[in-house]
Amino acid sequence: MGSLLVEVQPFAVVTSDDILVIDTGLGFEKDGQLQIHSNLWQAGIDPAKVTKVLMSHLHKDHAGGIGSQQLSFPNAKYYVQRRELAYAYEKGPSSYMTDELECLKSSPQLVLLDGDGVLDGYIRYTVTGAHCPFHQVFWIVDGGETTFFGGDVAPQLQQMKSRFVAKYDYDGKLAMELRQEWWHKGQEEGWTFLFYHDVKTPVFGPSSPR
């Protein structure tokens, strides 16, 4: 049996009003502590002060750090598409670890989203599908700057620059078209891109080397 190396890069974004976590990683522990908690502490962020957790989708490599017995971020609201949560239970363990979603499903911290919208006037979210049927992406507009997180529809810098179609996507052609659209618009408007599966270039923005 072979093995697959998965590089993941959850993000913390500190805005004027919130400390955001965007997707939660694999849920690995190191020395008895969640890896995502260790990384936050190293960045000077107390996990208990995270206020919002934005979930692009609920595949294991993005949702493993949500927390199975108790939620990993006790004072945060978790924002998930309603249809994505339902689809996770419909699809089951081939793509989702539903046993580990039970804590979230029953929590008052869960906020279920229905389609596209805006959170608190400055976080825009859109359901794109493409990678999985109810995948969503986020634009965070704060202090005149736009930060974009495309989840697994826009996972790596190199994919933004090519007409790459991934066989593992629900709709690879749509994903490719969206990457092209976002890349060109982001270049024109000076977005900062966050790439979840790109540990070499996780952040790319106006001041990045070209």
Describe the structure.
There is one protein chain. This protein has six helices and 13 strands. The strands form three sheets. Strands 8-9-10-11-12-13 form a six-stranded mixed beta sheet, with no helix packed on it. A five-stranded mixed beta sheet has the order 1-2-5-6-7. The longest helix is centred in the C-terminal third of the chain and has 18 residues, at 172-189. With 210 residues, the protein is of the alpha/beta class. It has one domain (11-202): Metallo-beta-lactamase, Chain A.
Query: Element order, helices and strands?
Result: EEEEHEHEHHEEEEEHHEE
CATH class placement:
Alpha Beta
Beta-strand percent range: 15-25%
Question: What would CATH call the homologous superfamily?
Answer: Ribonuclease Z/Hydroxyacylglutathione hydrolase-like
Overall geometric form: globular
**What's the gyration radius in Å?**
16 Å
Instruction: Give the class from helix and strand content and strand pairing.
Output: alpha/beta
What are the low-pLDDT stretches, counting only 5+ consecutive residues below 50? none
- CATH names the topology as Metallo-beta-lactamase, Chain A
Count the E strands.
13
